[in-house]
Specification:
Blueprint lengths: L10 H10 L4 H8 L22 H8 L6 H19 L20 H8 L8 H29 L3 H11 L4 H4 L2 H19 L12 H8 L13 H21 L4 E2 L8 E2 L7 H9 L7 H29 L3 H13 L2 H7 L3 H24 L1
Parallel strand pairs: 1-2
Helix pairs in contact: 1-16, 2-13, 4-5, 5-6, 6-7, 6-14, 7-9, 11-12, 12-13, 12-15, 13-14, 14-16
């Protein structure tokens, strides 16, 4: 990359049905379309200070590509200063060289502005941290696909993931020679893996995928450490308690049943999937039945949205194998606890793998016969 700067029990049935018959997509689409998708933001277990974005801030970030770049630079500077203030520090690294703040909450355009020292507003250390964050995000984007490639034997899925990630870059980044060179290299990799999906292409200059797979052949490379699941549960408990305290201060009861209208509904949207899994599974008995059920319901909604996204991508591309590919990428991105909470079992994974291989093989035969 440019370094400058689930779930319902019948999900497994969905996978098995798809493995048996690709035309099940239409009925599945009807089921999934009955629920609206949710805005899911990835969580971070990094101990460095980070900001929790409000709904308004998320909306503003979503519209960030239309913002004047000078405003992006100013806002990025202000975001850094806010992070310093919240953490009680004045620099992005401490004396031991460990980050004091977490930039993962910033969008790609802001990170690029910092990493490239746009407007001369950012220090060398800030540029470095933004660059490291960007590399970590690129690695995180490729990790599920690389794990999926281990299951399917198709390296092309990693190049597809890289292409999707780079295509989300801002217009400012796309204008750089580095982005253009890497995007061209990925196109060459896509062509090469279409002809031979079993091998990583060699000899392609500026190929970020080959570089990633050389370092992380099994698909890893994320910098954030995996927090102990018990600690995740305690943090989730604290988050719910904070909401209950705020509701009580307003003279209201915190509710976990959307059918109840008197009180303040709990907001689970800010919790990542691993936190929701901790509440849903309730292994340490920290949560009530109502809280666990609400977390399960939120996970179900997010996983429906994930399945629907995979289905829509396969319909857009015209390649039915992309549905199984999307499911496998989602499976690979989950922690063990998330898979348990969503009931995404090894059998479900194996059905998706078999479906992907069978569909790909069939399409290859049809292509050869044309």
């Amino acid at each position: 990359m440019t370094t400058v700067g689930l779930g319902l029990n019948n999900y497994a049935q969905y996978g098995a049905a798809y493995a048996r018959q690709a035309v099940a997509q239409n009925s599945l689409a009807n089921v999934l379309n009955s629920s609206s998708g949710d805005d899911v933001l990835p969580g971070s277990s990094n101990a460095a200070t980070q900001l929790t974005l409000s709904a308004a801030a998320k909306a503003q970030l979503a519209a960030g590509t239309t913002k004047d770049y000078s405003a992006v630079i100013s806002d990025s500077r202000a975001a850094l200063d806010a992070l310093y203030k919240k953490a009680g520090v004045t620099a992005p690294y401490d004396n031991a060289g460990k980050p004091t703040i977490d930039l993962s909450g910033l969008d790609n355009r802001s990170l690029f502005a910092i990493a490239s020292n746009a407007g001369g507003k950012f220090s060398d250390a800030e540029q470095n941290l933004a660059g490291v964050t960007r590399i970590a995000q690129f690695n995180a984007a490729l990790s599920p696909a690389a794990q999926t490639a281990q299951l399917t034997g198709d390296v092309g899925v990693v190049y597809k993931a890289a292409a999707a990630y780079l295509d989300q870059a801002s217009t400012e980044e796309k204008a750089t020679p580095t982005w253009k060179a890497e995007r061209a290299a990925i196109d060459k990799g896509l062509t090469a893996t279409a002809n031979d999906p079993s091998h990583i292409p060699s000899g392609i200059a500026d190929d970020p995928v080959a570089a990633y797979l050389a370092q992380y052949p099994s698909g890893s490379g994320t910098t954030a450490s995996t927090q102990d699941f018990g600690s995740v549960a305690k943090s989730a408990r604290a988050a719910l308690d904070a909401q209950a305290k705020a509701a009580a201060a307003a003279g209201k009861e915190l509710l976990f049943d959307p059918g109840r209208k008197v009180g303040q509904q709990a907001d689970l949207s800010s919790l990542d999937n691993r936190s929701l899994s901790a509440i849903s599974l309730n292994q340490d008995g920290l949560f009530s039945k109502q809280e666990s059920f609400a977390a399960k319901r939120e996970l179900d909604s997010r996983n429906r949205a994930s399945i629907l996204s995979a289905l829509q991508k396969s319909q857009t591309s015209g390649n039915p194998a992309d549905f199984s590919l999307g499911l496998l990428n989602t499976y690979s991105s989950m922690s063990a606890e998330e898979r348990t909470a969503a009931n995404w079992t090894p059998a479900f994974r194996d059905n998706a793998v078999q479906s992907y291989k069978s569909t790909t093989r069939l399409l290859s035969m049809l292509k050869g016969a044309s």
